[in-house]
Write a structure and sequence with these properties.
This protein is α+β, with helices and mostly antiparallel strands. The chain folds into two domains: 42 residues, no CATH class; 115 residues, no CATH class. It has four helices and five strands, in the order ααββααβββ. Strands 1, 2, 3, 4 and 5 form a five-stranded antiparallel β-sheet that branches. A hairpin with a 5-residue loop joins strand 3 and strand 4. Helix 3 crosses helix 4. The chain is globular.
């Protein structure tokens, strides 16, 4: 069992390293249906131009929907945040997940298969935990909004999810 795990992890690390080579990356991208091979860019060859907002709404048994609610990502910036800021990981994770969902939509995934992707399921689990405490909520839908600009902020819908039943596991 130990050897099998070592071989599996070693293979994953090797494929991750190969995934950073442009020639191999396109070929591996077609084979990596579950998007389990990460790809990092340390010096931002494509810098972020947008901010993303994750919002959700709930549906009651009668079918009525609530207003859209922003998810609660911590946005506190203590004085030491430039040295150590573990809460920054939440917004970074959201940005990475949004980018993955957008890449999936541009790639091999379509409207029927995107709900089976890891990124989609991660967002669904996150908003499910926030929506599970809303009284009377039975179903949930989330939206990823893309904002541009600082003063004249424009919001565009980057992705709208399907409607899902809420799993009560806060």
């Amino acid at each position: 069992m130990y050897i099998a795990c070592a071989v599996l992890i070693s293979g994953w690390i090797a494929l991750t390293a190969l995934n950073h080579l442009p020639v191999v990356s396109k070929w591996l991208g077609r084979l990596d249906v579950g998007r389990v091979l990460p790809k990092w860019s340390f010096f931002a060859p494509n810098p972020g131009m947008h901010d993303y907002i994750l919002a959700f709404r709930t549906f009651s048994v009668e079918g009525g929907s609530s207003n859209w609610r922003n998810t609660e990502l911590r946005d506190c910036r203590p004085r030491w945040a430039s040295i150590w800021n573990p809460h920054r990981r939440e917004s970074k994770a959201l940005n990475d997940i949004v980018q993955t969902i957008r890449r999936n939509l541009d790639g091999d995934f379509d409207e029927k298969t995107i709900p089976l992707s890891t990124a989609y399921l991660m967002v669904l689990a996150y908003v499910n935990n926030q929506a599970a405490i809303v009284p009377g909520a039975q179903r949930i839908q989330f939206v990823l909004l893309q904002s541009t600009g600082h003063q004249d902020r424009a919001l565009d819908v980057a992705f709208l999810s399907q409607i899902h039943p809420i799993a009560f596991t806060p």
